[in-house]
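User: Structure tokens for both sequences below?

Assistant:
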Amino acid sequence: MDIELGYDSWGSRLRTIGTAEITYRKWTGRPVTLGPWELVYEKMNTRLRRIGTTEITYTKWTSRPTHVGAWDLDFDKLGSRLRRIGPYTLDYDTLGSRVRTVGPLHIDYDKLGSRPHVVHLPGEGAGPGTLPDDLLIALFLVLYWRTEEQENARRR
């Protein structure tokens, strides 16, 4: 099953993952909902703290996430790339800059290769264009954190 990723008219912000709509705060540009779930940030609006009722915890001194609900997160030896989110392993392309798979999901990029365009899920999902909730949350977090990393690198 193919799940299409939709973007805004400028092509810069992810607006849909299949049938799940993502809405953004007007002034900050941060996502505030993912499908039926509200996204909650810390007081200073810096880190994503919760998706619906699923808490995200971080290390004490850095902004690296350690848990998403009951899921553990594993990073590579240098601690820079996410390797596993709960039961879903992540694989990267040969240069290591783009996520290619999240568990059973295979991510295809647009013609320029910079933006995820379609996600393939073997078999049938919860409905046409719909991902199961756990896969939707995992995919959103991976894409969200990669976008955050790219924006932070641009600011430096």
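Moving on to the next sequence.
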Amino acid sequence: MKSLSNPLTVQKIEQITQALPAYTPLLTMADYEQGLLGVSLYYCFYARYSGDDSYFTQAEKHFDEAMTLMGPDHFVKRFKQDYVCNEYLSLGRYLEYCLKHHFLEMDTNHFLGNTDELISDHLQRRSKVGDLDLFGGVLHAGHYFYARMNSSPSVRSQLEQVIDCIDSWARYDSQGGAYWQSPTLKNAVYLGLSHGSGMILAFLAAMHEAGIRTQQTRRLLQAGSQFVLSQQRSHPLGLFPLIAGDAVEAKQFSQCYGDLGTAFGLFRASQVLTEDFALAQRVDDILSQCCQRSIADGCTPDATITYGAAGLAAVFDDLYRRSGHIRYQAAAQDWYSQIMSYDQGGPYAGFHNRFSSESNEFMQISLGWGITGIGISLMQYVRKDLPTLDGLLMTI
């Protein structure tokens, strides 16, 4: 049932749904973050949201169209971390997600058998250069194989390779804190969920919970958490640097960058290191401050999943489900409600992301940076029984 308490949100969902067909041709890649698999996922959600199963036909249509765009002949490198393999990494996560939530039924092992081999080769190549990035790097492969675990338990061996790579590329400060450089990003030391410590801590916690290399992951979680906490600052809008050593100032506050992603990694570490009461207290204090953040701070540039209000809502919702703490539920609902505050009217159903619409118009439509993801998030806000996006976001 749709909530009647959010009529403007319900209207906006319909506006996005009606606008999407005209914009879909702008998406010329397959993956779910910036391509047609994201549109397919939108129609899966809309079918469940509206109760109209005919939209699953639209989802299947866009899935089939996405399959025609797979491979090197259609690949477009838009970012430094883009590789042909990224679309296969995305495909696996998309398919396992849809199987889990009964959106599209298929034998993922049959569909992804060759893809597993391709991703294993990619994992080995990126491991050699220490590229741990969540976009095209070792952790991207890690999230893929984590998604595949229920369907193919044998992928645990690849997950062990990811842990070994994290271990071998760890660097240590004078106090024994572990950090990781990003070779595709000028060897900078990031702290968040997209390229840095938050990303690695969250993944290691998931591996520990899965019973994979528990002693090794615990050791790395201890050292990694120690380094992150050593970087904490007193600026209320920038508790941590985005990159170690950057200016003490207000920072972007989003899923991709900023304090919440860093804090999420620490929180996941604290769920494993339960005997470390000092860590638990530090994490509680940091997240308490994150819960006080708002759109008025001016640090959240748009409504999107990657850089905006929708992504923050999803991370807080994840924290609530893992902890049961109502303050995270309240923060999630606040950020969901703030999505509509970014409606400026005009094209793209009124939403405009932080990128130039002329040079990157596809991003205005995409799941990660545009109205496809915003629409799904609004549906989740209206209908609490819809699936979360766990397994498709940066959190794990």
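User: Anything stand out in the second?

Assistant: The chain has a mean pLDDT of 95.
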